[in-house]
Amino acid sequence: MIIIKKNMKSKKSNDDFFKKVLKIVGKIPKGKVTTYGEIAQAIGLKSSARMVGWALNSAAGDDSLPCHRVINRNGELTGKRHFRTPELMRELLENEGIEFLGDKVNIKKHLWRPK
DNA sequence: CCGCTGACCCTAG
DNA sequence: ACTAGGGCCAGCG
Description:
Oligomer: single chain
Structural class: mainly alpha
CATH superfamily: Winged helix-like DNA-binding domain superfamily/Winged helix DNA-binding domain
Strand content: 5-15%
CATH topology: Arc Repressor Mutant, subunit A
């Protein structure tokens, strides 16, 4: 009667987190981009932007998941290395109408915040 | 069990 | 404007 609480909670939390990340990323509209930090905050974790990347890494290869629209706060395509090819990420973004400033995305113009 | 690593972000000097 | 360091949670050797 007194036990089992801790164990259950821990397991549930981790799965729930993963689910939310995929859901939010999948909701990113075409022609928009968001950041790891924004997603992390939308989920409820204030400083766990790294976990967002971790979740995406586990889901890498899923064509239904526009992980190329997820970038860092600086507008840099930090996750390009985990794609099939480093250039693929930029190609996809440019194809959707995202503007680039040098090697970085014009995040100020295309930023989309999950609500 | 301990420690390192990671698709990040913030604060301080 | 740039560099350095700490914090965060989860996975892996």
